[in-house]
């Protein structure tokens, strides 16, 4: 019978405060639960958003992190799909195969543990982490910024042991999301025109997907021109870190963007949507918002082509914010959609994406700007905030 494990974790005690590396206690997995050792984890914008206190429902103290690869340490009663020693990726959207949503091919939003996951607990409404005698909450059903974590069996997929474990953690969120937004949500066809707003890992994964399906024109938009092509940002990263890591990341043009635009360069008072419609043949077949800014969402919708343009919201806006447009924009044939985790049914799809990485048809190297030891997690958050990183891999 598995006992309590004492290990290190990065605990977020409060919003807007740095994480602290602590000794925590991780309880044994209960019925339907699995305890995993997290081997590699990456930082996502959503972890930073919660730590910054922008999520009013964010609960503290909490262990953040949701892009990881791990190995199963022990399993609770009734767990059949994984066993100790299996390599796994935790999934913040589970797949139970039984709920109304899982049975509907139109959605990936399994609801089996939605309520308690949102409340930062396991399904029995209790937590598996303790630090300094206090309960610590779970995050997105994953809590990967810990050496060990407890997750539901339905929130795990087993992956091939030959997978590059330090890279496929990225399939737990950002890359799968951007790629799936193109393939599953928009279903972009060869020969299409595409505009991508926001060139973090999510937006770059959209560009990668659009190029792969044969889009003929891909416009990349960002307020930070360093994100357009290898240049200042790349040199800075190499100069600062190349002594101990291999820097191979790519930016918008290397991923396949044919055009770039920094809205700051537009002449006075020309709204970006007007400029884009006038200069890109009436607008784009598909547009993707990968920022989380409601103004940008409007621009992305309104520069989708009249009659048929589809705009996909990928970015997560601040809590309570609302989107606006004139309804005539939709009456005249534009479609506004959104996507969570790129529409992938998680346990069915992530192992297949891992297989694509193994066979070389899906490449992840270009998204990794830094690799740090786990203890440097606060430095990693600072780089993310400063717009000086794509994905940063932490090694336990
Ligand atoms: P990121 O912070 O690395 O990248 C965001 C980019 O947007 C940056 O390059 C930034 O310079 C740019 N930007 C900021 N303001 C802008 C503006 N006004 N116009 C154009 N560009 C602007 O973030 P990321 O990790 O790539 O994530 C992007 C978004 O996707 C976030 O909102 C994140 O929460 C969301 N996300 C959604 C899902 C989902 O399932 N829907 C999954 C993962 C991430
Ligand atoms: O089923 O109600 C639900 C919510 C499912 C989670 C959707 C999350 C989408 C965005 C998450 C941000 C990226 C980590
Ligand atoms: Zn389900």
Automatic annotation (TrEMBL):
Q: Does the keyword Chloroplast apply?
A: no
Family, as annotated = Belongs to the zinc-containing alcohol dehydrogenase family. Class-III subfamily.
The protein's name is S-(hydroxymethyl)glutathione dehydrogenase
User: Which EC number(s) does UniProt give?
Assistant: 1.1.1.1, 1.1.1.284
Would the keyword Oxidoreductase be found if you checked this record's keyword annotation?
yes
Q: Give the keywords, sorted.
A: Metal-binding, NAD, Oxidoreductase, Zinc
Q: Which GO terms describe its molecular function?
A: alcohol dehydrogenase (NAD+) activity; S-(hydroxymethyl)glutathione dehydrogenase [NAD(P)+] activity; zinc ion binding
- Tell me the organism: Didymodactylos carnosus
The residues covered by the Alcohol dehydrogenase-like N-terminal domain are 31-156
Tell me which InterPro entries the record gives: ADH-like_C, ADH-like_N, ADH_3, ADH_Zn_CS, GroES-like_sf, NAD(P)-bd_dom_sf
Write down the Pfam families for this protein, in alphabetical order: ADH_N, ADH_zinc_N
PANTHER family in alphabetical order: ALCOHOL DEHYDROGENASE (PTHR43880), ALCOHOL DEHYDROGENASE CLASS-3 (PTHR43880:SF12)
Taxonomic superkingdom = Eukaryota
The Alcohol dehydrogenase-like C-terminal domain covers which part of the protein? Answer: 251-355
- Single GO BP term: formaldehyde catabolic process
What cofactors does this protein use? Zn(2+)
* GO cellular component, as recorded: cytosol
Q: Tell me the lineage of the source organism.
A: Eukaryota, Metazoa, Spiralia, Gnathifera, Rotifera
Per its record, the protein catalyses: S-(hydroxymethyl)glutathione + NAD(+) = S-formylglutathione + NADH + H(+); S-(hydroxymethyl)glutathione + NADP(+) = S-formylglutathione + NADPH + H(+); a secondary alcohol + NAD(+) = a ketone + NADH + H(+); a primary alcohol + NAD(+) = an aldehyde + NADH + H(+)
**Leading EC class:** oxidoreductase
